[in-house]
Amino acid sequence: MKFQPTEYKLMDVGTGRVYEDSGWNLADPQAPAPSLVRAVYANEKFTPRDNLKGLYRYADWLPIKRTLKKSHAPVTYKSKGLADLLEMDNLFITLSGYVPKKGARMETCSFKETEAFSVCARLPKNDRHILVVQSAGNTARAFARVCSDNDIPIVICIPNDNISDLWFTRRIKPCVKVIATPHGTDYYDAIALGEKLCKDSRYLAEGGAKNVARRDGMGTTILSAVETIGRIPDAYFQAVGSGTGAIAAWENACRLEKDGRFGSNEMRVYCVQNAPYTLMYDSWKSGSGDLVPIAAEESRRNAEIILAKVLSNRKPPYSIAGGLHDVLTASGGDFYKVTNDEIVYWMLQFYNKEGYDIFPAAASAVAALFKALNEGTVKKDETVMLNITGAGMLNATSGGFELKKPDLVLSTELSAEEVISSVDRLF
Questions:
Q1: In this predicted model, what pLDDT tens digit does every residue of 41-91 receive, in sequence order?
Q2: Pairing of strands 130-134, 154-159
Q3: Which site in 3, 15, 69, 157 is 20 to 30 Å from 172, CA atoms measured?
């Protein structure tokens, strides 16, 4: 049976205006101030589609025009080992990774696959644009794999210091091009490089947090959790670089509340960053809705120090209407920070108690949960969703892997015209 595109409209979070999606709308053209837009689906009931595979079982709440090959959905299960260690009654782990014994089969081992399969499915099959994605690591790997498997042309911008995240168990097709900023640069520099490229209309900016398909793809984590738990959790934990996944979880919790079958949305959203890269943590603790200032050199230096390098973003959707500050405020949530040593400790503890390896970012969330329990912010009998955003690399790479080297390394000093000319030659 041919897939019918999902029916939805867009809503400007700041003004509440609902309007038709022009196809790749990232912001309301009539908005008086910056704001995220949110998808408003024709089907207000949470209706998983058992006739569709992988992530697309949630297609009714994904703004997509088609389905793609080789997708997988997050898996949620009730923890025993970690829950016993933390003395918790109702700890549910939502796992995105490659852990076959748990039913998780994301080949890139990251929940960034959820956004890649949704964003790319928002594009019509014969779209002539070249998609442009900026990444600190895991997003790059996910989009490269999905676009390669589905023959979608894409340019991925990444800091050269993070290129080790571009490991693959199968060769990447030539439709995927990787351009890197030089050593010593950070994710913000990669963002700026992509913005220069998108000044040419042939290149299509994926949009990051502004893309409803990215957020609603990532929001499938809480849909997986609620399918298993039967209700909206009391608390949600996630490590954040941009905060997009936490925003997405909150947005879907709001949809689930409107459905009426899963309880009221009293889910407190708890986020964590890896010290010393604590831009959003510092901003939240300052009590301001604005990001605290951070110099470019300090950002780059801190990004080099942290173990969870994907948690570094100098330009996160924190202050924008509908962004992370609004989500933490509305949910009554909070922010934590953890050290590299704490991350290593909880990577080991998690492996011992749950039986599989997790990425440093995911271990940051475990460390934050431990802190919240110790200080009494979260009660041990509450229903908690722990978003394990990356896991299973030992399983996935047991047969070997290869690194995708950059097709180009471009100086941050190049003009837009020079960047476009350089990348054009790759195609």
A1: 999 999 999 999 999 999 999 999 999 999 999 999 999 999 999 999 999
A2: parallel
A3: 3
CA distance 385 to 238: 9
Strand, coil or helix: what is 422? helix
Residues 6+ apart with CB under 8 A from 253: 222, 232, 236, 265, 267
**The tokens of 286 are what?**
């300052």
Give the mean model confidence (pLDDT) for residues 7-16. 97
Please, are residues 36 and 15 in contact by the beta-carbon 8 Å criterion? no
- Give the 3-state secondary structure of residue 91: strand
CATH topology of domain 75-109+214-396: Rossmann fold (3.40.50)
Six-digit token string for 389: 């955003």
Domain ranges of the chain: 75-109+214-396, 130-201+401-427
Sequence length of the chain is 427
pLDDT tens string 303-340: 899 999 889 888 899 999 999 999 999 999 999 999 99
**130-201+401-427: which CATH number, 3.40.50.1100, 1.10.1060.10, 3.10.520.10, 3.30.1330.40?**
3.40.50.1100
Rounded CA-CA distance 207/115 in Å is 12
Strands of the 383-388 sheet, one edge to the other: 75-78, 90-95, 383-388, 235-239, 268-274, 334-338
Residue in 75, 77, 383, 387 with CA at minimum distance from that of residue 248 = 387
Name the DSSP letter for residue 218. Answer: H
Alpha carbons within 13 A on the beta-carbon side of 263: 12
Query: What pLDDT, in 10s, does the model give residues 92-115?
Result: 999 999 999 999 999 999 999 999
Residue 288 has pLDDT above 90, yes or no: no
Counting Cα atoms < 13 Å in the Cβ hemisphere of 123 gives 25
The yes-or-no answer to whether 75-109+214-396 and 130-201+401-427 have a common fold is: yes
Beta strands in 278-382 (DSSP E): 334-338
- Quick count: other Cβ atoms within 10 Å of Cβ 315? 16
Indicate if the pLDDT at residue 1 is higher than 70.
no
Residue 243 has pLDDT above 90, yes or no: yes
Model confidence pTM above 0.90:
yes
Q: Which amino acid is at 278?
A: T
Pairing relationship of beta strands 235-239 and 383-388 according to DSSP bridges: parallel
- Under 8 Å CB-to-CB from 186, ≥6 apart: which residues? 136, 159, 161, 299, 300, 303, 312, 314
Give the residue from 223, 318, 398 showing the smallest Cα distance to 236: 223
